[in-house]
Predict the structure.
Amino acid sequence: MCYFNPILIFLACLLLLTACVAPSLQSAGNSQPETASPQLRVMSYNIHHANPPGRKGVIDLEAIAEVIRKEAVDLVALQEVDVRQPRSGNVHQAQALAEMLGMHHYFAKAIDFGGGEYGVAILSRYPLSDTIKVELPKEDSPNAEGRVLALATVQLTEGQHIRFGSTHLDIQSSANRQQQVETINAAAADELPFILAGDLNDYPDSPAIKALDQVFQRTCLTNCEATFPQDEPDRIIDYIAVTHASKLKVESHRVVPESYASDHRPVVAVFELPTASVSR
């Protein structure tokens, strides 16, 4: 007759359990958590002075704010922005959007219009500095509407900066657009990474965009979605691009399927930000 000591059985089971668990604990203790690279979400949006194209005379700035809010972007390049114009309720639209979204802003006037100002703007979740307006040339068609580049330095974190630009190129003259791109290319000759976004009013195979490609990498190069008009888009005229020298990696590009708030669809790109590339 065999006799089993329950104490010995308990101790044997305990030793076996410890042997199985210990390697797992050791492995867990030695593993290092993966750290995701920092990202930057950027939008380009021609807001049509917040007038939904299907509602003549109506201004719906909250609809524009909601589009931006839903995309959770860090930087926004705005075009066709009204400032203190009677047609849009004498509101400073860039400032109002910044307040609605809890962002910083910079507005650059392109022209005086309708008793107020009209131009492009930048919204940013990060502090802005070194803001400047660059007048863009229109030598081929001097009577064309004035166009500008809004530029700012964006402080991402302490000691980390990029340059960000918002623009809206001439609609009348291809030669004007090419000259304007060349001026932007010259402005991008900076040691900081430079992201450009805007309504460039030209197609990907145009001389102006080919000139842009000499200095910038567009965030979409093939099989890109159309951005205009908003209801049945059939052309690409809105872009986001980054300087070749910046080493910022484009993680994604998409056109937001939004068809109410403006006559353009917004474009959103996500960048990976290597720390070494954004130090000033």
The chain has a mean pLDDT of 89. Residues 84 and 212 are 33 Å apart (CA to CA). The chain is about 25% helix and 35% strand. The first strand starts at residue 39 and ends at 46.
